[in-house]
Amino acid sequence: MSAPATIIPASAAVPRPGEWLDLAAFSGRRSRAAGWWRVLWHLVLPPDTQRTLPTRAGIILMLVSLGIGLAAYNNANNVLFMALSLLLSSLVLSGLLSWFNFRGVRWRLVLPVHWRAGEPAPARLELTNSKKITPTYSLLFHGRARRLGDVQPMPLPDRLDAGGATSVEWIFQPRERGKEIVEITSAESQFPFGFLRKSAGGSVSQEIWVWPARVPYEFRPPHIRQARQPGDVQRRAGPGADLLGLRPYRIGDAPRLVHWKASARLRELVVRQTGEEQHAGYIVVVDAARGRWPDPAQFESLCSLAASLAEDLFTAGRLRAVSVQGAPVQPIKRLADLHSFLNQLARLEPAEHSAVTTPRGSDVITFHPGPRHQVHVFLGDESAGAA
Predict the structure, then answer these.
(1) Does some domain include residue 4?
(2) Which of the 8 DSSP states describes residue 256?
(3) What is the 3-state secondary structure (H, E, C) of the chain?
(4) Kind of pairing, strands 139-145 and 114-116?
(5) Which domain covers residue 53, as residue numbers?
(6) What is the pLDDT of residues 314-366, one digit of tens each?
(7) Residue 342, Cβ neighbours under 10 Å: how many?
C-alpha cells in the first residue's frame, strides 16, 4: 500500500529576502548642484546598468521625423518644422519621463527556504517607491531560474503610489533536486508613450535548494515490528491522550485531570485515568556509494524515496534519527531537523567509497538497488518495501 502523500509545504518556511536593488547610478549622496550635473551627464552617457532603446513604435516615429525633417528643409515650410519639433520633443520627453519613472523605486527578491522538484515553487518580488509625490507606472521585470532557463515576464499589475509598496508573485516548477539560482535579469519600462524601452538596475540573484521529488512507494514493516504501533496504548496508567477509566480524586492530582461532568453526576471528585503511550521509531540511513548506485536515475530514485519516507515517518511521529553517507546519527526532534536532512539529500552526490557504518537493529531502515531502476527498503535484514 502506498504511503500517504503528506507534504510539508514550502510556503510554510520562513522566506529569505534578498538585497534591495535600485537605479544604482543615482544612489550617491552629493550636493544638489553636483547631483544635477551628474543627472545630465548620465542622460548623455548612461552607465552600464541602464539602457534606453527604441521600441517598434519609436523606430517608426524616428523614420517619420526624418522624412518630415527632409521635407521641411527642402520646402522651408514652417508647419513642417513645427511638426518636426513636436515629434522630436515627444522623444526627448519620453526619455526624461521614463528615467523619472524609475527614480526612487527599489526591488528585491524574496524566496522560501527551499523548493521541491516537480512541484510549483513560489517566488516573490517586493517593490517600494520612495518618491514623495509621483507614482510609478508600467514596470516590467524578467525573472528566471538558471537551471530551467525559461525567462518569465512579471508586469506590475497596477501603479505604485508614492511612498507605497507592493509585490509581484510568480511560479516556477523545478525539474530536479540540487542548487538553483533565481535571478531578476532586467527591469524595464515603456512609460509614458511606448516609444522608448528603458531598462535599469542590472540583475539580482539568490540561491535556493531544491528538495528531491516525492515518489509513490510501499513500506510494509515486518509483523514483528507491527506488534506495537505508534500510539498503541499500554494497559497501565501514565501520561497520554487515551482514556482508560475514572478513579477517585487523590490529593496532588492535577486539576486539569478532573472529569467535572462525571464528578457532578457522582457527587464526588473523580479524575480521568489515561494510558501511557509508547511510540516505535525508525532510523533512516542513506549510503550514497558510487559502487552501489552506478545508475544516475536510480540514485535520484534513492534520494526521492529517502525524502518521501522520512517525511511520512516524521508526520506519523515514527522518525527517530537519520544518517547520510557515514555522518553521525542525527536525532530528529523537530521540523528544522527534518529540513536539515532534506537539505542534505538535495546536496547529496555519489561518493567514491562507502563511509557508512550502519547502526544495527531491527529499527534501522536502509536502501538497496533493485532491478529496473527500483530501490528496495530494508528494515534490519528484512525487506520492507520498494519504490
Answers:
(1) no
(2) G
(3) CECCCCCCCHHHCCCEECCCECCHHHCCCCCHHHHHHHHHHHHHCCCCCCEEEECHHHHHHHHHHHHHHHHHHHHCCHHHHHHHHHHHHHHHHHHHHHHHHHCCEEEEEEECCEEECCCCEEEEEEEEECCCCCCECCEEEEEEECCCCCEEEEECCCCECCCCEEEEEEEECCCCCEEEEEEEEEEEECCCCCCEEEEECCCEEEEEEEECCCCCCEECCCHHHHCCCCCCEEEEECCCCCEEEEEECCCCCCHHHECHHHHHHHCCCEEEEEEEECCCCEEEEECCECCCCCCHHHHHHHHHHHHHHHHHHHHCCCEEEEEECCCCCEECCCHHHHHHHHHHHHHCCCECCCCCCCCCCCCEEEEEECCCCCEEEEECCEEEEEC
(4) unpaired
(5) 13-211
(6) 888 888 888 888 778 888 888 888 888 899 898 888 877 665 555 566 688 88
(7) 22
pLDDT tens readout for residues 56-86? 888 888 888 888 888 888 887 888 888 888 8
Determine the length of the chain.
Answer: 387
Enclosing H/E stretch for 82: helix 78-102
Q: pTM value?
A: 0.67
Does residue 26 sit within a domain?
yes
Residues 192, 194: Cα–Cα separation, whole Å = 6
Q: Which amino acid is at 10?
A: A
Residues 32 and 138 in one domain: yes
Identify whether residues 199 and 270 lie together within a single domain.
no
Nearest to 16 by CA among 295, 208, 221, 220: 208
Domain membership flag for residue 3: no
